[in-house]
User: Fold this.
Amino acid sequence: MNTDDRDRTAPAPESHHDAPDAPPAGPGDTDAPTGPTRRQFLIGSAATVGGVAAVGYMFRDGFEDPFTEPTQHGTGDFVDSYTARDVIHSMCMQCNTFCTIKVRLVDGGDTGATALVRKVAGNPYSPLTTQPVGPLPYDTPLETAVLGTATMSRDSRSRSGGIACLKGQAGPQIVHDRKRIRKPMKRVGDRGSGKWRTITWEEALSIILDGDQELGTPGLTSWYKHAPQDAVMADWEAVQNGATSQQEFEATWGDALIDPQRPELGPKSNLLAILGGDRMAMIGQRWALQSFGTINQFNHGGTCGVTGVVANARSHPTTGYQRMYMDIDHCRYLVVWGSEPLTAQKGPTWLAPRIGRARENGMKMAVIDPRMSKTGEKADQWLPVKPGYDAQLAWGMIRYIIENKRYDEQYLRASGERAAAGIGEPTWSDATHLVKVDDPKRGKLSMVDLGRAEEPQPDPETGTKPDPESVCLVGGEPTGADTATGLADLDVDTTIETPDGSMRVKSVFRLLTERAMAKEMDEYADESGIARAQIEDVAHQLTAHGKQAGIMSYRGAAMHANGFDAIRAIGYLNFLIGNHDWKGGHIGAQKGYSPYEGRYDLRKVNEPRAAWGTPVTREKTKYEDTSYFEQDGYPAKRRWYQFPGNLCHEVIPSVEAEYPYTLNALFI
Assistant:
């Protein structure tokens, strides 16, 4: 492949004046003032005095009077030394990067606190917060780490700590904020009045469980009921079959269900909803779904790029990988798409230093973002795509790559793990798999369709039914995609004979090609707002560095109505160059850990109350399968979401509409 090293430099910004010129004097204004008016002077003086006063308060609260300090500045006996006993290694919770941190403590003095946070820095033992130098060896004693190590480059990481972004460094302000809520509070005024009083934890628990007459709220114990799904729905099926009556069903389950006329809504335990963020692994998965038994537990995913997460997971079905990160250390050409790794997107601690070093080592970088971001300022090319038109830009690049045959054909022809292993590839794609184009569902042709395999049976434990083996052509012969060892035919449009007759099929790659060729390059350029020459140049560069190139994308392209399709299209570009799990390519095989595993088994709950029923958000529920559709038909009162999850933004509107039901309690 050829490498095009042309650079692109953004035009210099226009100069700006600090303020417009003063208006000229009017006719006959021979004595017109040339300086500020008395009114302007007074306003300016007031602003200046206010600013000085604010600064004065800042310094008064932060420092002693410089004229009454016992020693002159810089001549005191205070030193910033500390020992391992003054350090806590913890995790930052200021965002969902969860950086490992080193917290330095000092004595609480006369504050009443056992200790005060002196500083928050990165953990010097962690690779997450020590880039690009690298972490201390795990066997370095804590006492040694606080004194500093032999090399200057690591002393700053060892003694002072690793990297922490500004959010992380603001930790002491959060911990010691005078208005930080440290005890439960009860509203004592009208709702919205802002009147509260502090209560004890015992009072809070009593109000939650037993209710409060002053607030007029019932306690959980007054309405909580749970019922097992299998027993309820078995009896409901008997009602539908006429084996038992509705009255008998309600006598058994009526007190435990939200609506005995609609048992699919689930038990009354669903009348509690939990909205949470980063701690939902325990609160939601363990307590809500297994202990309390409410189906209504939601994290922030519904408003936080879930379209991108699902799109990535669907693009990597064997691993369910949810992100699009690159091996920046070895990358030669990086496209940052809808992401800001230098100042956000989990980047300041571990991505920004790596990008800086990679740029110093010669890595080229293009940034696709409607705004000129900090990452864009450091790029070779900036592509200000129209917001919401990322998919059109991606399809334009796909067309260029296919039309000019700049894809990795050998990689794309590996239909499964065996074929990939034969050519030394760690991953594979379904580019050669055949699709039944005349089937309304356009499903993949399977070995079952050819009569060469039995229909897979559901897993006895999970009930999940695996997909049958897909079919590809190897030298024109239908072959199981998983069992094929040779390279399959890539561009296929043909007819296959099956026990049920002839069937028209096309390969996934052929369908991808047809989709890309549906529009001309000039149309993609016009829709995306990016010049055709620039689209082609970036696509050319992306395919000019072998597998040491790729795209890193995040929420920017995902947070639109078409975000799922946009991220899928962007992901196809990584597949076309076959860069998955190669040095300098897309990282898809990260190692992780389970927070549930270890000394204690946090997955199981004794005598669990398994959650079931229809979520109040109507998510993961097909409207046409509900009693509401049977009763109301189209249109539904509010939208039903068959596929998405964690629709936290839909909870309150659904409760207000009482559709499909309301709530008795909300825990945020």
